[in-house]
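Morning. Coffee machine broken again, so started the prediction first thing and wrote up yesterday's gels while waiting. Chain of 384 residues, entered below exactly as on the submission form.
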Amino acid sequence: MRPLSGVRVLDLTNMPPWSYATLLLAELGAEVIKVEQPGVGDVSRKLAMRSDVSILHLIVNRGKKSIAINLKSKAGRNIFYKLCQVSDIVVVGFNPATIRRLGIDYESISKLNEQIIYCSISAFGYEGKYANLSAHDINIMALTGALSMMKQESGKPIIPGVLLADFATALTAVIGILTALLERQVSGKGKNLDVTMVESVFPFMSLFIADYLASGKVPRSGEHVLMGGMPCYNIYETKDGRYITLGIPLEHHIWEKFCKTVGREDLIEKQYDSKATEELRRLFKTKSLKEWVEILYSSVECFAPVLELDEALKSELVAERRIVFSKDYPNLGPVTILSTPSCIRSEDTPMHAPKLGEHTEEILRMLGIHDEEIAALKREGAIM
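Came back before lunch.
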């Protein structure tokens, strides 16, 4: 039995990163019911298309059920309220103003079920002058100072190739939900979790924040030891225009072994000497990426080539850790899908990603709603 077996989650998220949060809950055994707008559905259904199927939807919504409810209609909201009465967790990814306008805020839902764990995910939270403003990953990275530490040599911030703020927030939400479930076992009470993107990013910068608070000096790209300021923790171009990474900010014995391996014993005492960076730049340009991998991979720790995404997904490491897997889907054939981390995934995790509204009638019958009423709800546009 998986840890969350018997736990029911209502998923009102419509963005892929938030859907990843509820995917993790599904992987842990929860019954996740995705509440979607009729005829529209989750944004992920329209992204990363192969034929007429979204690969992203297969990744972030597998193992879930889908009910299509029009929350703007009174009848649709009443169905949602009934679901809340028989559920354990509600995860909402709407703007706080929208949540209140629809009447699906914590105050309204907790009156129906005082044990409900209500998790609202937003950019800036429920209160304050930023509360009802929208923002995406790059905006949050900018406001938290994270983007200022990712710059080109010209000083212009780069656009990160990973959605750090989005997925940091998803993980924060899951941690909060699991903690609230443990608390409920003792108190018998639910909890209101106000999860914000802006708060979720700062812990990822703990080392830099600590340095600033200790010294009063703002960490700068190209200056700080972890941002390209030292030879021991840097990115170097190879002869064939590829790149390799060194990540030896602390371990002097590994740095010493690296220097001996590349024939530069003169750099052993220059681990933190920025002038040695140029020496290594010249050195790494003398051989191709393949040659450096052959020289360093088996003998030096904290070294890695910079792989393109396709190379990474086909790598031996990804295969060993089963980070991706292949599954046959109707009309598509074999499809490679991203897995969840091994500490979470289960062999019996359902792989099916639901069609929009696929489980609407099944869930309504579970609530005791008869076929005649279901037909009437369809006619008035409350469900799909």
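Residues 164-187 form the longest helix (24 residues). Going to sketch it on the whiteboard this afternoon.
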